[in-house]
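Hi there,

I know you've been waiting on this one. I reran it after we fixed the sequence typo, so this is the corrected version. Both the input and the resulting structure follow.
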Amino acid sequence: MPSSCSIRALWILNNQDTVVFSRRFSVVERRWTVACKKANKRSEDNQDANLSSSSLPTDSELADAFVERKKREGSVRGYGIRVKQSIEGSDSWVDDPIMRHIISLHVKNEEDGKDDTFWPLILHTKGQYYILILPLVEPSHLKAYNTIRKRSDCGNGVGVDENLSSLLLQLPSITGYDLIFLHRAFMVAHVLGDITTSDFQEPEVVGNAASSVGGLLDSLTGSIGISARPKPVAPPVATSTNSTTGSGGSGASDSPKLGPKNPEKDALRSFITCAMPFGTPLDINYSNISTIRNNGFSLTDMPPVDSKQPAWKPYLYKGKQRLIFTIHEVITAAMYDRDEIPDSLSISGQVNCRAELEGLPDVLFPLTGLDSKKIEVISFHPCAQVPEQTGGDKQAVMFSPPLGNFVLLRYQSPCSLGTPIKGFYQLSMVSENEGAFLFKLSLMEGYKSPLTMEFCTLNMPFPRRKIVGIEGTPSIGSVSFTDHFVEWKIIPSGRGVSGNKSIEASFPGTVRFAPWKSQRVVSSGFLQGIVGDEESDTEMELGNNNMVNVDEYLIEKMNKNLLAVDLEEPFCWHAYNYAKVSFKMVGASLSGMTIDPKSVNIFPSVKVPVEYSTQVHSGDYILWNTLGKCPVAATPKEIGKN
């Protein structure tokens, strides 16, 4: 079997469940057939059941199987857990949420009348398209999956020898490709989705406002004598004033789509031919592939004789040199202000880079903030060479940079500087159409310069009630409202506050609603009910044919006495009310991750300006109503104590 990820086939379906693009790789399929014959020979020797090495389904057969699975599982993704509608052998029968992303399809075999199972199928949804990728695995893996999907017990119980999680972990041990095996297949699906919808996003890199941005591909193509050819547009570099200097969708409409247009189909064919010849993904960076396709190569664009040119850098940069690092973090929080429920705070970050360097240099720099006690998850770009961490807070990182903007590493960590915004939110209905609320917030308490909060806005959503008025004056900022939102601009854009000055903000007030009337609340999906007054209880039953999302099902099952509102605001249930804070901070990271631009070394030695900046954005930063009900999940540590 292969030592890397190989693809047997791929399909792209539209929202009408029609295959609009497909590709089968005969070389990989022959390897599958040979592997099945060998496995069946061993099975005959051991008197085991044989495994069918059926051919790949036609487009119509796959579309029919896809539709049948959607009916059986209730939606495209499916339930992901075993429910009363699950039948033996289905994906939900396996009782593992990953079956919403790694699915199986069953196609009727005309010869023996039995179903041929195709697994693992990577499912990715982009816009109004569904991308299916069928990677090559060992026949023994498919045989093990067929056993798991018919097991009477459910879930990944402790001590159970055969379960889906352990089976998936076996894939890299057989292929020798580590966990990148499935990750590679997922990445192929994501890139194909981006090509189909013409949605390409480069990671954002922030440079000095005063420095010349230039065009990477403009200078590149001009230097190799092909400026007359059509050139792709280089991703722009954002500008910022908070950098330290040392020596990247298409929207989905409601109208049905028959399939990608001819330019997208041509781009798909070209990408597949270049990026994954004979079904083995090599370089799946679409920017590289499209640049090569548009510009070709020149005899003058030759790497140094003593250097090996990596696949992620098909061209050599020529022009004004510089190196840019941007640490971009997103902080999420759930603030409860309750003794029995701890507040939750986490950071997802990435180090984005753009290296406009001539030749094939190596970049070496010390990365501070990698203490294993703080960093929970970390992954590096394939171009990086990182020695095994032996402890401590610093780690030397060396990388051979690709072209354009790229993500050098991703990580998750707690907030090392404390909570940037803490406080509480209280809301109580004093009458049927009037609610009294109170906010008390503390912003950037204990924070110091150079951290700066550029803006801060708080929103109170009321999607089920129409707001007719609001009374109250905040201690700072301004207030406005629409039919279903109250917005409190605590720090307006352009009036940033430095970390040396903390802010105490309060906002007592009342919100008045239009009289409550009996109305029909129709949510997207299966959640439908007749809503009377706010205190009425409605129990919505789950049917076989109206289930569209397992998330909705789980919430409805756990909260049968609560009424759902429009699913665009899934948190705003009858008893669940919250406020959401949005803000942006610059000047330093909240995780403690830092880069010293003066300690960056480039080999061969060359003097290049190094620019470094940080950005922190809020994700779902939620203040739950202290006086209302709120959802909370027990952490593994809390479960262990019990």
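Quick highlight: The longest strand covers residues 610-624.

Best,
R. S.
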